[in-house]
Amino acid sequence: MNPQPSTTAETADDEAVDHARSEIVRVGTSLFARGYVHASAGNISAKAGDHHLITPTDAALGFLEPGRLALVDARGEQVAGDRASKTLTLHRRICAADPTARFVVHTHSTHLVALTLAGVWSDDDVLPPITPYYVMKVGHVPLVPYHRPGDPRVADLVTAHIADRAASRTPIRAVLLDRLGPVVWGPDAATALAVLEELEETARLWLLTDRRPEPLAEHALDELRSTFNAAW
Question: What are the alphabetically sorted keywords of the record (predicted)?
Fold first, then answer.
């Protein structure tokens, strides 16, 4: 009897999908418990091999069920789970534009949405570099003008920002959608969460202080660049 062909690659893909499922559920539960998301606002995705997993449309992130997450193949066709979030195109385009992006989170975090209503620092940098950890963990965050939720044109704008910043050697880890909130990404859940949390807390500080603090001085920024390779 001829031996069966190896299924090592398939097993690896299955393990990657299972791990992505558990990470998405874990992150959703954590974000909900700490007040970063509410109701059915926001979405989370992870790249698993050639596939993407993303939260279903109108899913409450604090009560996700692993088996109901939408599984999408390399062609962008859904192969399992509930209907994928309407932001699927944006998530997939971010991962294609930035090879380091494997975990993407979009929330309607209160202080960041409030920042877009009150007025950002600038369209290229929604917040000034007022703390060293904002510079080190977040970096530049551009504002994306308002479009309706799920508008495919947003993906073009976000990937253009990724390309522009990569060309200037100051890669970005996040954008802020006007009136909708942040989209952040990283190579894993922990990195993406660190960006989101630092970004939201800096917006909170900025608003609590009536947007008065001056940015860090240029010599302080230079020190963060040279010591920690901060992308600023």
Answer: Lyase, Metal-binding
pLDDT at 195 over 90: yes
How many whole angstroms separate alpha carbon 193 and alpha carbon 161?
A: 21
SS3 141: coil
DSSP for 42-93, written as a single string: -EEEEEETTEEEEPBTT--GGG--GGGSEEE-TTS-EEESSPBPTTHHHHHH
Q: 């971010």: which residue's tokens?
A: 94
**pTM for this model (two decimals):** 0.92
**Strands, E, within the chain: which ranges?**
43-48, 51-54, 70-72, 78-80, 103-106, 143-144, 174-177, 181-186
List 36, 133, 134, 146, catalytic entry? 133
Strands 43-48 and 51-54 come out as antiparallel
